[in-house]
Amino acid sequence: MILEIKNLTIEFKTRSSTVHAVNNVNLTLDDRDRLGIVGESGSGKSTLAYSILRLLADNARISGRILYNTHDLVSIPEPNLDQLRWQKIAMVFQNSMNALNPVTRIGKQLIDALQLHKNIQYSEAREIAADMIEKVGIPAKRLMDFPHEYSGGMKQRAVLALALICHPEILIADEPTTALDVVAQRQVLQLLMELQKELGLSVIFISHDISTVAEFSNKIAVMYAGEIVEYGTTFEVFNHSQHPYTEALVAAFPSLHRPIVALKEISGHPPNMANLPEGCPFEPRCSFSKELCKFKKPDFVPCSNGSFCRCHLPRG
Predict the structure, then answer these.
(1) How many other C-beta atoms can be found within 10 angstroms of the C-beta atom of residue 117?
(2) Which one, 16, 98, 198, 276, has least CB within 10 Å?
(3) Other C-beta atoms within 10 Å of 253: how many?
(4) What confidence tens digit (pLDDT) does each residue in 27-57 have?
C-alpha cells in the first residue's frame, strides 16, 4: 500500500451554510495500482483529489487522515508537504489551459518545475525536459513552443509531461480527457496506460465517464454525494453493479459488447450538499427505494460479489 485515506471528511464553510463535500471516505492505493474514481459533477471526486495535495480553498475544513508512507498529508507542515508535491505525488489537471501559463514556453515551464524541485543545472534540466516531451509523443523540436501553438491533445500531453517531469510515485489524473475529442481522448488514455506501466506509477484516475474509468482502472470507487457508494474490482463493479447508482451510470453509456438499446438517463438531480437528506442521498432518484431508505442511512458493507456497497438493497 502506497496511499491510504482514512475517515476523510471535507467541509466548506460559507456565510450561509456548510457544504459537506466529502463524507467519511476510506480508500487505499496499492503500488502500481490504477484506481478509478467515478461519479457525476459535484459528487466530490475532484475535492477528494485536491485534498491529497492539500490544494483546497482556505475555507475548507479537513478531518481524517491521508497517509503516504509515514506522512499524514492532512497534518504535515506546509514546507514538508512542498517536498512531496510533484516529486512524490503529482497531478494532471482537467483543463490544460488553466494548468499551463499561456505566455511562457512549454519547455521553460518544464525546466522551471525541474529546477524548483531538483538541484540541477539549466542544461541538464533542458535535456530532461526534451526527453520527457518526446516520451509523451511530442517532437523535441516543439519543446519551446507556446501553449497556443499546440493542439488540444498536445496541450494535455504537455500537462502530463509537466506532472511526470520529476518522476513521482503517485499520479492523480483529474478528468484528463474531458475537454478532448474522441480521437484525442483515446490517444491520451492509451499514452497514460503505457506510461503507467513504463514508469511504475500508482495512478488515481478521475472521470464522470464510467466506461473510460473501466478501460483504464483495475479498481473502481463510485462516488455520490461526497461518499463512496461502491468499491471493488473493475470487472465486478462494471459488470455486476451492486448499487443502483452504479447500475444507472453503466446504463447511461453505450457499449460495444451489449445489444444496441436506448440509453437511460438518471432522473432527477444530485442532492444539495449543504442540506443532505436524512437517509440514503440517492433515494429520491432510485427506482428500487423502500421506506427504510428515506430515513436510515445505509452502511458501507461487503456484498456477495466481493465488492463493498452502501445500500440497503444491493442489486446482487
Answers:
(1) 17
(2) 16
(3) 13
(4) 999 999 999 999 999 999 999 999 999 999 9
Cα 247 → chain centroid: 20
Tell me the three cell numbers of residue 24.
467519511
Retrieve residue 137's grid coordinates: 509523443
> Does the pLDDT value for residue 98 go beyond 90?
no
Q: What confidence score (pLDDT) does residue 267 get?
A: 86
Q: Which one, of 159, 165, 163, lies nearest residue 184 by Cα?
A: 159
Greatest distance between any 2 Cα atoms in the chain: 68
Q: Kindly provide the residue ranges of all beta strands, DSSP E only, lying in 145-268, ordered along the sequence.
A: 170-174, 202-207, 219-224, 227-233
In this prediction, residue 258 has a pLDDT band, given cuts at 50, 70 and 90, of: low
Contact criterion met (CB below 8 Å) for 9 and 22:
yes
Q: Is 134 helix (H, G, I), strand (E, B) or coil?
A: helix
